[in-house]
Design brief:
115 residues; alpha+beta; 5-stranded antiparallel sheet; Alpha-Beta Plaits
Length: 115
């Protein structure tokens, strides 16, 4: 199993933020099934102000640069969801070239320090 932390901003508009939260309280079923199909085992998105943090666990074979595009290409509703969600979002300044959700560096894992 792999774990990932990713970050992204929402637009600085309370109405936009509320719309984004509403969509995630009622996700489209096709998007959920598509995530499972590409190897995502669990996904959580947290929000503070307008900064989002996504925590994901995946199968060992999962590669974000390969499997997220595969998820979008294989699932028209996922592609539609992605286009819609991007209307609420903004890349963080730290995002790399071509990166939307910016991959974060893991700097601590409690499990590494337990006996």
């Amino acid at each position: 199993m792999k774990v990932y932390g990713l970050t992204l901003n929402l637009q600085d508009d309370p109405r936009v933020i509320e719309q984004y939260k509403h969509h995630h309280r009622h996700p489209w079923p096709e998007t959920i099934g598509g995530l499972e199909a590409v190897g995502i085992l669990d996904m959580k998105i947290f929000l503070l102000g307008r900064r989002m943090f996504m925590y994901m666990t995946t199968q060992d074979e999962f590669k974000p640069a390969v499997d997220f595009p595969r998820y979008i290409a294989a699932n028209p509703r996922a592609a539609e969801w992605d286009v819609l969600m991007r209307t609420f979002q903004e890349k963080v300044p730290e995002a790399g070239e071509g990166e939307w959700w910016a991959l974060m560096e893991k700097v601590f894992d409690l499990q590494d320090h337990l006996s």
